[in-house]
């Protein structure tokens, strides 16, 4: 769903063969695949989801069955995928990273800004001086149809005080993270990223896979969450059965000191 965001950032920053990309929270590797198609050298870090890291390896390193803790560089492609931030550059003979991205949007889960700040603080010394660092977040709630659906997750999760709390997106989330991480803001943009699904079942599977509803499932149960999600999705169902939710995401370009 965030492909338009990835494309906009790659185009604006002219990602290409001269780019040495460090992707924080690379997830299942889709943005890395797109950067690789433009010729960039890649290091992807996915610390929170072994399953997503495994999928990224299938996409980018299909001929190398290394475990998730192996942070070595692929000898042929130069791609490096790991579950922890590298303690060094991808190869001591190569220059520092020229671009850092954090494409996992913040602005929905309590503590996500603080976690990103800590990750950026540790990562920026691996980039060259003045390198762009891209932070992303959800757009204004009134511009995101998915906001209404996520209210279901927040309301149900409130029944279990021990679970992850959701929060509303704030206007200056990205700027505050950049400031705390010692980065200098240098431009921003907004990108339309509609969430479109072939049918209701696909919408339920897609939304539940984001992890934003995990707390709600823990607090109640899967059937209850799916029932209330189905009701919340009703306004976004089209006559042909497809589900379409317009959203806007925001990105900030900051620079390393």
TrEMBL record:
Transferase recorded as keyword: yes
Basic and acidic residues bias (residue ranges): 81-94
Transferase in keyword set: yes
Protein's name according to its UniProt entry: Methyltransferase type 11
Molecular function in Gene Ontology: methyltransferase activity
Region listing for Disordered, in residue ranges: 61-94
GO terms under biological process: methylation
Keywords in alphabetical order: Methyltransferase, Transferase
């Amino acid at each position: 769903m965030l492909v338009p965001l990835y494309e906009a950032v790659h185009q604006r920053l002219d990602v290409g063969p001269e780019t040495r990309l460090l992707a924080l929270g690379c997830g299942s590797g889709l943005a890395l695949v797109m950067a690789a198609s433009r010729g960039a050298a890649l290091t992807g870090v996915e610390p929170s989801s072994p399953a997503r890291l495994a999928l990224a390896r299938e996409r980018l390193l299909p001929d190398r069955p290394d475990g998730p803790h192996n942070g070595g560089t692929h000898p042929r492609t130069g791609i490096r995928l790991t579950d922890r931030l590298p303690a060094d550059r991808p190869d001591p003979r190569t220059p520092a990273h020229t671009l850092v991205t954090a494409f996992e949007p913040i602005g929905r889960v309590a503590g996500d800004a603080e976690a990103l700040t800590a990750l950026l603080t540790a990562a920026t010394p691996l980039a060259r001086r003045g390198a762009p660092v891209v932070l992303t977040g959800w757009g204004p709630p009134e511009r995101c149809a998915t906001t209404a659906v996520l209210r279901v997750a927040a309301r149900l999760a409130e029944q279990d005080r021990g679970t992850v709390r959701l929060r509303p997106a704030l206007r200056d989330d990205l700027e505050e993270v950049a400031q705390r991480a010692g980065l200098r803001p240098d431009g921003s943009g907004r990108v339309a990223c509609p969430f479109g699904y072939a049918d209701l079942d696909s919408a339920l599977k897609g939304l539940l896979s984001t992890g934003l509803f995990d707390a709600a499932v823990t607090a109640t149960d899967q059937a209850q969450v799916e029932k209330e999600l189905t009701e919340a999705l009703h306004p976004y169902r089209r006559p042909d059965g497809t589900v379409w939710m317009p959203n806007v995401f925001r990105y900030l370009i900051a620079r390393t000191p």
